Amino acid sequence: MIELIDVHKRLGSRQILDGMTFEVPNGLNYVLMGPSGTGKSVTLKHVIGIFRPDSGQVRVDGKDVPGMSRDELMALRKRMGYLFQNGALINWLTVFDNVALPLREHGLLPRAERGDRVAEVLELVGLSHASAQFPPDISGGMKLRAGLARALVTKPEYVLYDEPNAGLDPIISQQIHELIAEVRDTLNVTGLIVTHSRACATQCGDRIGIIKDGKIAVEGTVEEMLASEDELATAFLGEGSD
Ligand SMILES: Nc1ncnc2c1ncn2[C@@H]1O[C@H](COP(=O)(O)OP(=O)(O)OP(=O)(O)O)[C@@H](O)[C@H]1O
Ligand SMILES: [Mg+2]
Fold first, then answer.
1. Does pTM surpass 0.90?
2. Residue 16 C-alpha to ligand 1 middle, in angstroms?
3. Which helix (H) or strand (E) segment is 151 a member of?
4. Residue 129 CA, ligand 1 centroid: distance in Å
């Protein structure tokens, strides 16, 4: 379980998180929505310990993330995949080597088995044919799928998805949503998903929380949120909001 309890974070002169509280039960996908610049990516970065809260608590499986030693943090990151906003691939490495990176970094799997594991996740995201290509030569949708393969290559228990369908056409988006739901259902991965997309939130989410003023302003199951008359819920999830 991922828990944020009353997290406050100031960056520069702005109070970005101001009492952020929510929890992600194991085996579910929790969707974070909210206007641009409200701290969604910053929130994800607290969960893997890139940022430390000024006050409040961040816990994974009951363990305090900011209190972790370097080794504990590395151990946590082995169990947690991160799909960065826009894929964040390394341009001078092939798709294959980008996806293999977390295995190398954490020394996971004997070297001889890494290739098979990378090939397996590339197939899962439909990128087998592109493994030898370099990021500047592939489309935005392919970059995102490569980022997703990289997030999944370590067989993580948790995956943080930062805008997994930004800039994708509706057909590829749909495939990504199905993949995220499948990863939850077949691999029992717990997900925290940041998205602006109603389709993404409703097709792969279980619970949805919407951020305003540095905290979750409204939250509920997908069904509750779709039925809600709350102004924010309607703005993000109402008909025609996609
Ligand atoms: N390392 C940093 N140093 C200073 N300010 C930062 C840093 N990272 C983010 N911010 C600021 O924190 C605020 C929230 O940023 P964040 O990236 O979390 O927004 P977001 O909700 O993910 O937006 P978007 O939907 O556009 O991705 C922004 O004002 C941003 O400029
Ligand atoms: Mg962001």
1. yes
2. 8
3. helix 140-152
4. 35
